[in-house]
TrEMBL record:
<dbReference type="GO" id="GO:0017183">
    <property type="term" value="P:protein histidyl modification to diphthamide"/>
</dbReference>
<protein>
    <submittedName>
        <fullName>Diphthine--ammonia ligase</fullName>
        <ecNumber>6.3.1.14</ecNumber>
    </submittedName>
</protein>
<dbReference type="InterPro" id="IPR030662">
    <property type="entry name" value="DPH6/MJ0570"/>
</dbReference>
<dbReference type="Pfam" id="PF01902">
    <property type="entry name" value="Diphthami_syn_2"/>
</dbReference>
<dbReference type="InterPro" id="IPR014729">
    <property type="entry name" value="Rossmann-like_a/b/a_fold"/>
</dbReference>
<dbReference type="InterPro" id="IPR002761">
    <property type="entry name" value="Diphthami_syn_dom"/>
</dbReference>
<feature type="domain" description="Diphthamide synthase">
    <location>
        <begin position="10"/>
        <end position="216"/>
    </location>
</feature>
<dbReference type="GO" id="GO:0017178">
    <property type="term" value="F:diphthine-ammonia ligase activity"/>
</dbReference>
<keyword id="KW-0436">Ligase</keyword>
Amino acid sequence: MNNVPFLCSWSGGKDSCYALHMAAAQGLKPVVLLNVLNEYGDRSRSHGIPKEILQAQAKALELPIHFFESTWSDYERLYIENLIALTQRYSLKASVFGDIDIESHRAWEEKVSNAANLNAVLPIWQQPRKKLVLDMITYGIEAIIVSCNHTLGPDFLGRTVDKTLIKDLEALGVDACGENGEYHTLVTNAPLFKKRVKVTITDKEESSNYNFARLELL
């Protein structure tokens, strides 16, 4: 598996970041990040992270990042189209994803990867969720919560993913890893980052079932 060129499905959060690091540690070679923006092209579709902050992460990793805009209804079709184009441009052999144990997610990732003749790689698949978060912290991934559900509430926005946070999550009956969508994160530093990504929270917003931090790059 040495030097196999791969694309990383990049949310900007801890799971995709750790998956990229683990794939690289296994000898695969990261060559491009892929992120899906909302239909307005200003934030990521999944985590609500501003485009310029995702670009700063890519710069810190010294990797190109490819964006495309999509509604949820067009997501799969456009994802496959962009995967095929990137496979040709970068001579990709694999696609790396940060999912842990939701079978429907893995099935979708294998489906879209197969459409582009890529091998879907899930380096953190089926690792115990709490141990996985603790391993990320020990490894040196620094991340903050940038969106969360109402069980957690707006006070959790901006909190660092650390051992204290895990205890607080468990006290509320929330999965330590947030794999069920309880919260999403932004990585500000990691072993492969050449420099820290500095952000500030300028405001907090609430939708029908979720809280979002309005982020600004420093």
